[in-house]
Amino acid sequence: MMLEVTDLNVYYGNIRALKDVSFSVEEGEIMTLIGANGAGKTTTLLTLSGLKKPQSGTIRFLGKDITKTTPQSRVAMGISQSPEGRRVFPGLTVLENLEMGAYLRRDDFSGDMEKVFTYFPRLKERKKQTAGTLSGGEQQMLAMGRALMSRPKLMLLDEPSMGLSPLLVSEIFAIIQRLHEAGTTILLVEQNAALALKLAHRAAVMETGRIVLSGTGEELSRSPEVQKAYLGG
Amino acid sequence: MLFLSQCINGLQLGSIYALVALGYSMVYGIIRLLNFAHGDVIMIGAYIALLTIGAGVNPALAVVLTIFGCVFISVLIERVAYRPLRSAPRISLLITAIGVSLLLQNVTQLLFTANTRPYPGSAIIPSKALKLGGLSLSLTTIVTILVSVGSMIALHLLIQKTRMGKAMRAVSEDTGAAQLMGIDINRVISVTFAIGSALAGIGSVLFCCRYPVVNPNIGSMLGLKAFVAAVLGGIGSIPGAVVGGFAIGFAEVLVTALGFSAWTDAVVFAILILVLLFKPAGLLGRGVAEKV
Predict the structure, then answer these.
(1) Which of A66, A120, A122, B292 has the maximal Cβ count within 10 Å?
(2) Which residues pair with A23 in a beta bridge?
(3) Are strands A30-35 and A202-207 parallel, antiparallel or unpaired?
(4) B residues 142-201 lying closer than 8 A (beta carbon) to A
């Protein structure tokens, strides 16, 4: 098991945002968390990266308990995240944003940068531009490229389709598929349940801070509850 | 010729304000804190130079000790007073900064009394005048301008080109995203305080060479004026701090040259009020940009 989350409880002040959340991600798979706004998906990912501290529960990554470790040590261990809303550094150039993704690496990462440019050729054209001048789709590509620069074993992707045109969404999802084929394990959070379930091997549905359903991507896309609530069927 | 010599005078004063304003702006950029203790660190630096040179230390070494002393005390203040408040409301942080400022002034007064003492400026920069054409410039003026401009160029290169400089910009733009990159924000914040206060240490020496008197309150007025300079340029903006610093320096020299030297402080704070009324983001400030 690559990632094992057990009984995670996270609070924002008095509000309990995650309630006994447990799930796991296996090496090499695409796992997805789907659910409505405010269900706790983003909180889950921020907790996995160490930006939110859980009240209780454990996170194990590659067999080690990382619940109390710092965000930087988790990046060093191989967890990286492309966050919700992209959060690229607007005043830094595309190149500098990618360098920040490789912040902890002391080896030569020019090969990885080339690899990012083969996934996202548009970034190469704009590498000297500041990230704030990019379009939404380009910023999403940059956020993903930046997350790849640390050579993650597990990549956390938060809402990569948000605010993008259908054409760009399918482009981004094709790249997620390619990353998976290249061996990266992916935990994908999406509101676009139809697309996410099509891509994912396993999936879980979150509602108001709990995981209410889980199974293979196929099982969930056939489940009547999911069809009614998330697939418009 | 009078005009030119006043311009150079403004350049000298402005470059000191710019050095101090840079420290304000860098710290504000990275943790959104108006570090009101910044000016008092400069005062501490003045005492370090005064006491070490008084004890017979070589002036060049005393300057180095001043800079290191300022860095040490600033990093210590950040570690002890500000870091525990990292997730507290910003107003708590601001009140703490004012508290630290008062603490430094009063502890200094307790240790060294409130008496004004002469600063050994001429031991650091010999009081010589150089003639350039018809223009007579003091060595202090020339050294101040050269050292300040050199420091600013070094700072610019550090922030634009080095890994740490880029990390500083990343943290100031989005702290959370910087953490997701594996950037140790506490370290970056410590380094920011260290760099800002190294500039303050240099500013301390240059300021005291221009106005060679030291008492526990010299830092507060200098700090406030540098703060006005930082706000005028756009707080958080590095080029803004430089522009604001020179603007305030020139404004003071202009007011003095026109014969209203008693009014210089009033003019500086009138500038603050005007900026806050008409251009609160400052000349080069980014304003309050919503993140998309």
Answers:
(1) A120
(2) A5
(3) parallel
(4) 163, 166-167, 169-170, 173-174, 176-184
| Whether pTM exceeds 0.95 | no
Give yes or no: residues A141 and A198 share one domain. no
> Model confidence over B173-190: pLDDT tens digits?
999 999 999 999 999 999
For helices B238-257 and B264-278, the axis angle rounded to 10 degrees is 140
Phi-psi region of A86 (alpha: psi -120 to 50; beta: other; left: phi over 0): left
Segment (H or E) for A8: strand A3-12
How high is the ipTM of this complex? 0.96
Chain B residues whose CB is inside 8 A of the A11 CB are: none
The three-state (H, E, C) secondary structure of A45-66, written as one string: HHHHHCCCCCCEEEEEECCEEC
Looking at the 3D structure of chain A, how many domains does it have? 2
Structure tokens at A53: 């501290």
pLDDT digits (tens, 9 = 90+) for B84-113: 999 899 999 999 999 999 999 999 999 999
Do A60 and A116 fall within a single domain?
A: no
B167/A88 Cβ within 8 A: no
Nearest chain A CA: its distance from B225 CA (Å): 28
Contact A87 B176 (CB under 8 A): yes
- Is residue A130 helix, strand or coil? strand
Domain span at A17: 1-78+153-160+169-233
